[in-house]
Amino acid sequence: xxxxxxxxxxxxxxxxxxxxxxxxxxxxxxxxxxxxxxxxxxxxxxxxxxxxxxxxxxxxxxxxxxxxxxxxxxxxxxxxxxxxxxxxxxxxxxxxxxxxxxxxxxxxxxxxxxxxxxxxxxxxxxxxxxxxxxxxxxxxxxxxxxxxxxxxxxxxxxxxxxxxxxxxxxxxxxxxxxxxxxx
Length: 183
Prior knowledge:
mainly alpha; Rna Polymerase Sigma Factor, Chain: A
């Protein structure tokens, strides 16, 4: 049975089909929820809310474009809704914003650690960083999704990169120091 058939059954509110769709996509969507949440429990809540929305709106999916892209967008929007209500963003002037490059030595920094420090960023920085860097949205798209200005998006990205760069540099210094002490 193909994905199109599964989607048709979900449109008819078939519980077995919905469960199958959940099992098929829940782990992928959960990783998205983790990126946009403060913790595991919050990510679980977001995943449940996203699937409720997916099943409520599945009749709006017209088999055009990627179904996975469609449900990913719903999941990201579900996660962002919490933050829009909380007004986590500062309004800033559209001043010159310094671009900061973050270089990662993959042999010294694990992906788990990198995701952990991204998760520790303040909400406003983490959301912009994830949307722009990890999910590839433009500053214009980020500003529309988060209901902030393009300048605020750029500023929050620069601040997120600065914090990440400092944390990574500290981690690398500790790593080098521990090797020297053992050596």
